[in-house]
Specification:
The protein has helices at about 30-35, 110-125, 165-170, 175-190, 200-220, 270-285, 290-305, 305-320, 330-345, 350-360, 375-385, 390-400, 405-415, and strands at about 15, 25-30, 55-60, 65-70, 75-80, 85-90, 105-110, 130-145, 145-155, 220-225, 245. By secondary structure, it is α+β, with helices and mostly antiparallel strands. The chain has a domain at about 5-155. InterPro entries: SelO (IPR003846).
Length: about 450
Amino acid sequence: MNFEYTYLDLPDVFYSVNQPDLKVKKIDLLNHSLMRKLNLDKVEDILTFDENTFSQSYMGHQFGSPVILGDGRAHILGERVVDGERFDIALKGSGTTKYSRNGDGRAPLEAVLKEYIYSEFMYNIHIPTSRSLAILELEDSIERGTEKKSGVIIRVASSHIRVGTIQLAALKGKDELQKIVDYAIERHYPYLTNHEEKYEMFFDMVVRKEAELVAKWQSVGFIHGVMNTDNVLISGDTIDFGPCAFLETYDPNQWFSEIDVNGRYRFNNQPSIMHWNLGKLGESLVQLFDTEDEAVEVLQKILDRFGTYYLNHWFMLMGEKIGINDFDYTNDDDRGIVLDFLKQIEDKKLDYTNTFRQLALKKLDFTPDYGDYTPDYELMKSVNPSFVPRYHSVNAAIELALEGDYSKMHELEKFITKPFNDRVPEYLKQPTDHNFNTTCGT
């Protein structure tokens, strides 16, 4: 496989060259449409590792506390360029690296199966995300309290440059910082490359993209679960699905991750956390300005736009969900239509996804107060999915897969490509009938 390695032109503080350690037993899942997009004939072609395979280093504020990190169980095989678009092809669960600390470099098969389903569903409901090319089952088992099967996900992303990558660069010094930010601009925002105010415009673009990303999450009831700065890509794509879940009963204070003991990353706190993470990004960019005072003034002004970017995009999306074509997302009365409807859903303790789909199908016994608006039901059907991956359906499919039966996993794989089609099995629409917690799957 002819990969490119532009990331390796950066200082080696950002990576460590090393080889994956894989004994592949079989390919459990293969994303044929993504294979075609990447112009790949067979997955084995990308599993011939050369001397340039590498792992990345970065920092992260994990639950608010700074830590030096890195890819402890991941390797980037290289960059694939298709029709002018550059993608990282990476492995997760592929063995120890320089950054593994005390870990074994492996991932439970169940964790990578979950990421495959959730990431591909997000892609198919038009939310920016990393994607899943394949799941490989390995020959060796791993110890996680009990003996478990191990697996590898082949992940595809526009890059793996994280907020934490920029944080690490700022810690190393201005030269390293300038090189990684210039690289990020050239890779993701090339139209800024020669702009005299490129660093402040870069920050503004990232703030806008992350605000719009979290607005999209909120509109579909997605709870990421572990919004540390090392899990936020400067491309504005979703990544790292460990403890994620979708809201079922609409409760804005809900969270599911068992490691999030205080609910830091609960559903209604996600916009605030993204704003906080972007504040850390802004702090990391200060060295790129002539004076600290100038930097703080400029960067804070940009960061303060987050709320407007977020609310405007979220209300626009919610206006579409209730079927108003010419919804004025800046108008308080129009915003009130959305907020009042959400309050009814919360008070009635209804399922978030099913309620909006039933509204689209004219099967709900109450509606938003449309006033003079005429609802567009075709618009509603195009933006409100008929189902989401739920804890019970995903878990049941994974449990069968661990026993060697992939029938339910293949069924899920089929229907996540058609999230707005009502001809899906009824069990995919049914809420989980008990409380549950999610794990990060390490």
